[in-house]
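2024-03-11 09:14:02 INFO worker-7 job=invfold-0412 stage=load source=structure_tokens
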């Protein structure tokens, strides 16, 4: 499972000048305990053996790498493959990380899992993994997000999780993160905080990346088996950055493979209308890490917008900031309209309804593929779009 091709942060958790551990003293003890426990697990082959067994039998891995023949023909350029994370249990890549952290929590003797969730996808993955291991689970969710994502709240409760409404601040994801951190500080002895993306304070960005690296490891092997060479380009959407860093990690040491992250361009690249940190952001400190964030002149977090809840976040995972700074990866953005058009295109051409997050990667691939004749491209299809059909219905209605 482990490869020696990934970039590891330094001892203080920095990827170049990004990352670190910007937390109050009270959070240092649990973070150091977690770092130590993960270092021990990481070096233990039995840990990865159990993880891989669960990914196979519970999650349904490996997920296919499918040649998208009709999409490729339609665009008339690159031969396009889809890495089908939408076929993983619970419908997205998030379960890979939830399973890894649940196994670690159990090793640490923790009996209680807490998590934050925005749209509810990470909450559902966490509640799923906690149920499968008989651990109690509390999910913090902004009150406004709970109203918007009723079905996921119901799903989490069906799985035995307690969903706690957060009424502070903007009543959305960043307030839920703060609430989860507060809970953790007060319940360190029996509680593990299961963070949902490759971000936050060290060791989360590296640990979550390692649990998502299975995507890149599989995709590289599957592509080599199909084509006998490496792809020219890998495209993935970037919210916090976990699905993208997972697939990138399989190719990051292959200089000939272009890595492209796609952020949410929203309705316009102007404050409050998008979530493209590399287009409209700058370096700063946010929720435990130094990275690219959307901030005003005073360093206050700016509001964000995206049609896709999973990409709608102020900060990006620090390893992406590092790949951006070192020019190993490039970052593009597509608008809400372009993502929605790509959503419809994939449904009609390939019989796959993609998540709106993943639709951003598809939309960008649609722009570059026509100019890539004779070349190959992998799109990471991070999740399925069943959760988004209500949003699409409303979006189309609003535009009429
Ligand atoms: C949550 C989510 C994302 C965004 O999170 P990353 O950490 O950037 O991967 C992307 N796609 C889907 C389907 C998601 O559920």
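2024-03-11 09:14:09 INFO worker-7 stage=emit residues=400
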């Amino acid at each position: 499972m482990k490869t020696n091709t990934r970039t590891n942060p330094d001892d203080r958790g920095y990827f170049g000048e990004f990352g670190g551990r910007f937390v109050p003293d009270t959070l240092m003890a649990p973070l150091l305990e977690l770092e130590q426990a993960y270092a021990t697990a990481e070096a233990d082959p039995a840990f990865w053996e159990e993880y891989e067994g669960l990914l196979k039998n519970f999650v349904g891995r490996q997920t296919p790498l499918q040649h998208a023949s009709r999409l490729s023909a339609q665009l008339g350029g690159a031969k396009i493959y889809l890495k089908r994370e939408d076929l993983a249990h619970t419908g997205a890549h998030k379960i890979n990380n939830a399973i890894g952290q649940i196994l670690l929590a159990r090793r640490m003797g923790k009996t209680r899992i807490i998590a934050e969730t925005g749209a509810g996808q990470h909450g559902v993955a966490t509640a799923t993994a906690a149920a499968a291991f008989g651990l109690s689970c509390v999910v913090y969710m902004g009150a406004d997000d709970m109203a918007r994502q009723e079905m996921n709240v119901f799903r989490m409760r069906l799985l035995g999780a307690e969903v706690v409404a957060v009424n502070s601040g903007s009543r959305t994801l960043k307030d839920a993160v703060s609430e989860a951190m507060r809970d953790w500080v007060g319940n360190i002895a029996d509680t593990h905080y299961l963070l949902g993306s490759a971000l936050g304070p060290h060791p989360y960005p590296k640990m979550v990346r390692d649990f998502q690296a299975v995507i890149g490891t599989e995709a590289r092997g599957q592509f080599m088996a199909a084509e006998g060479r490496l792809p020219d380009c890998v495209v993935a959407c970037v919210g916090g950055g976990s699905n993208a860093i997972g697939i990138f990690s399989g190719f990051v040491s292959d200089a000939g493979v272009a890595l492209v992250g796609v952020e949410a361009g929203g309705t316009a690249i102007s404050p409050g209308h998008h979530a493209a940190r590399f287009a409209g952001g700058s370096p700063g400190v946010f929720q435990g890490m130094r990275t690219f964030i959307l901030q005003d002149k005073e360093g206050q977090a700016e509001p964000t917008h995206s049609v896709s809840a999973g990409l709608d976040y102020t900060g990006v995972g620090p390893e992406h900031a590092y790949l951006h700074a070192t020019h190993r990866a490039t970052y593009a953005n597509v608008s809400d309209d372009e993502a929605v058009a790509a959503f419809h295109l994939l449904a009609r051409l390939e019989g796959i309804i993609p998540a709106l997050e993943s639709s951003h990667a598809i939309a960008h691939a649609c722009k570059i593929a026509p100019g890539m004749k004779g070349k190959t491209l992998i799109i990471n299809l991070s999740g399925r779009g069943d959760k988004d059909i209500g949003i699409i219905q409303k979006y189309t209605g609003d535009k009429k």
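2024-03-11 09:14:09 INFO worker-7 stage=report msg="The longest helix spans residues 204-227."
2024-03-11 09:14:10 INFO worker-7 job finished
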